[in-house]
Amino acid sequence: MPDRNLPVPSGEEIGGVAAHSSAVTGAHGEDAHAPAPRGPGGPAPGSYQEYDTAADDVDSPSLVKQALQTPTVLIGGSLLLFFLVIAVIAPVIAPYPPTEFHTARSFEGPSSDFLLGTDQFGRDTFSRVLIGTRSIFLVSFSATAFGVVLGTIVGLTAGYYGGKTDEVLMRIADGVMSFPSLLLALFVLTMFGPAVINVIIAIGIVFIPRVARIIRSVALDIRTNQFIEAAEARGERSAYIILREMLPNAWPPIVVESSIRVSYAILISASLGFLGLGVQEPTPDWGLMISQGRNVISVAPWLILAPAIAISTLVIATNIFADGLSRILLAGGRVEGANE
């Protein structure tokens, strides 16, 4: 249906395709890619230009202002920034190398020399917790990026094409999701072996179908908008429509889903490390540290408490940040409003 705010020739006079084209080009035959004239009232409601600038409307100074005024974003973001800074400067501020042995001082309690005590080999627990921040960030953020990128591609493709393509992709996603997350990651690592890159791939595979289903639901909503029909009437390729028309309008839920997935990635990574299939020695890993300290918890409880508190704090910070971010990006019909 042509936009009522843009005068077009009658469909009976020039045919339905011409009516579609005129809704995009406007009364003066302007190209759809040309910048939309924005008067005091902005682009016409429901016009191609309105949807084309949807991402720009979200990415505005008001968004930053809202984030700075949202306590959950400030608290969670500050904690995440703190951990990120620790990950960057850990080798500089760590009192000892994480693999340095002090065999004469094994299982020594917290002291001025060893702030969080030592393990069975006399290695400084504080230094290992600091350095372990780097591996947890590397694995969790890389796995999230891998899963979200591929999941977004699958979801947008299924939502745009629909029909048999959607049916096949979603049935495959359902089959993968039928496996518990940790069990699926263990299955992948059992085949390829415990290495950092394999852990990233395993967690990413766990995330792909879950992200795909979320983005597919968004894509199905975007697919019904007039600017998609206009792009098809112009003869644009499917790849162009998916990447240049649909993706910019789907990025708010993508950002929110990414922030949520990071916390899951941290927990799965720590769980794999605990089971001995995550990051391997001599690289410090919080999950592996908990596994090594569980048998001596009565003798050296600090071996478990330090990495456990670090994992809990990082996961809580990520969840708080994701909750605040979702309230900002998705409140007020950011996504649903694309149809209004």
Structure description:
There is one protein chain. The chain is mainly alpha-helical. The protein has one domain (60-339): MetI-like (MetI-like fold, Orthogonal Bundle). It is built from 14 helices and no strands. The protein has helices at 11-14, 16-25, 48-52, 54-58, 61-68, 71-93, 125-161, 163-177, 181-192, 196-223, 226-233, 238-274, 286-293, 302-330. Helix 12 (238-274) packs antiparallel against helix 14. The chain is elongated and about 75 Å long. Residues 1-59 and 332-340 have low confidence and may be disordered.
Brief overview:
Helices cover 67% and strands 0% of the residues. It contains 14 helices and no strands.
Features:
elongated, MetI-like fold, 14 helices, 340 residues, disordered C terminus, disordered N terminus, mainly alpha
Write the layout of secondary structure elements.
Elements: H1 11-14, H2 16-25, H3 48-52, H4 54-58, H5 61-68, H6 71-93, H7 125-161, H8 163-177, H9 181-192, H10 196-223, H11 226-233, H12 238-274, H13 286-293, H14 302-330
Helix pairs in contact: 2-11, 6-7, 6-14, 7-8, 7-10, 7-12, 8-10, 9-10, 10-12, 11-12, 12-13, 12-14, 13-14
> How many angstroms separate the termini?
14 Å
- How much of the residues is beta strand, in percent? under 5%
How are helices and strands ordered from N to C? HHHHHHHHHHHHHH
User: Would you identify the CATH H-level superfamily?
Assistant: MetI-like
* Apparent shape: elongated
Q: In this structure, how is the largest beta sheet organized? A: none
Q: What's the domain count?
A: 1
